[in-house]
What does this fold into?
Amino acid sequence: MAAAGVVHALAERRETLAAVESITGGLVAATVVEVAGASAVFRGGLVVYATALKATLAGVPQELLDERGPVDPDVALALAEGGRARCGADWGLSTTGVAGPDPQGGKPVGLVYVAVAGPAGSAVRELSLGGGRQAIRSASVTEALRLLAEYL
It folds into this structure.
């Protein structure tokens, strides 16, 4: 389980995590807190499903959202960095994408960006996921946690 590995690695390092979620709507946070010991490392997070909240709560530059829309690699990075800063965590993890059933803003169903921001920098990964809404959202959580695990 990716979440257990992340929680244990963060605990060993005495580091903390925050999540900023769009497409996953809180599933990253829920998955992390299912792991015993999560309270030692998980600071909290933001669910910024509405585009406007990505700017007002998570600190994504409004100009970036206006130019590229919410499903964008730089938006994913800004979400992770904003969550890290606003929650006072060592690591920020974010998800943004299109779960369907219809494309959004010219972006296809299954296009997802997950990002991590931490003490040594940040990274984003583009995903092209298949299946229905539930499968896309579930896979987004797994891939976000895998990205973080690679950095830990």
